[in-house]
Amino acid sequence: MLAAEHLTVDYGGRAAVDDISFDVLQGDLLGIVGPNGAGKTTMFRAILGLQPHRGAVRLFGHGPRSLRHLVPLVGYVPQKISFDHGFPATVSDVVSLGVSTRRTAKGARLVREAGLEWGRTYGGLGGARERTAAALSTVGLGALAGRRIGELSGGELQRVIIAKSLVNDPLLLILDEPVTGVDAESQAAFYDVMNRINESGTTIIWSSHDLTAIERHAEKVACMDGSLFFHGGKEQFFKDEEALGKYRESAMQMHMHGHDG
User: Which PANTHER family does the record cross-reference, listed alphabetically (predicted)?
Assistant: First the structure.
């Protein structure tokens, strides 16, 4: 599904992402845990071709030359979502902007060549209106389809962006610190949505600095502080005192130095 090989990103003479290698299998629910400043966002941007890097990324069985055709089959929800609160668009308008069969056509052919299973939950429903309605239903916002986007809470907006990603039936969904700044009720609603999407067959990678959330919702765990120092099953991670200790130590150091991201 995804393989990162010796992925390295340099910022100002230092490696923000340092020689990371890992793979993600189809159907995985992988939690990337690390303190703020550990390089999680930078790593995601490198995987998506948005950040210059060294090393290689293989996506859906294909190498870097095919990346631009395959990235449209990845749903990406960034940590920070900025928009004009006065923009006169409804929830349905925003989600429908994600519908694009033209952008995904070449990638779909490459996926079939790789022999990957691709469940077309939304693509088989017809036009943009039907796909949009189904995606909003999945994230629990069907009743808000006609509401202005500027009237939503932070948690609702996050789920709208997830719905916008779903309308093209992504094989992989990347969620960067998706519950940052939202209340406990919105967090619970988000994790319910995330688990249901994964159970329907979509591979998910999501980042967090919350060990409790990782323990409750991840199936596999990768732990990083610039470099990757653990990648494996959740149960294995929470029994690994060395890995847990290193995470807590790196979190303390990042907090003391005031790093972001």
Answer: METAL TRANSPORT SYSTEM ATP-BINDING PROTEIN TM_0124-RELATED
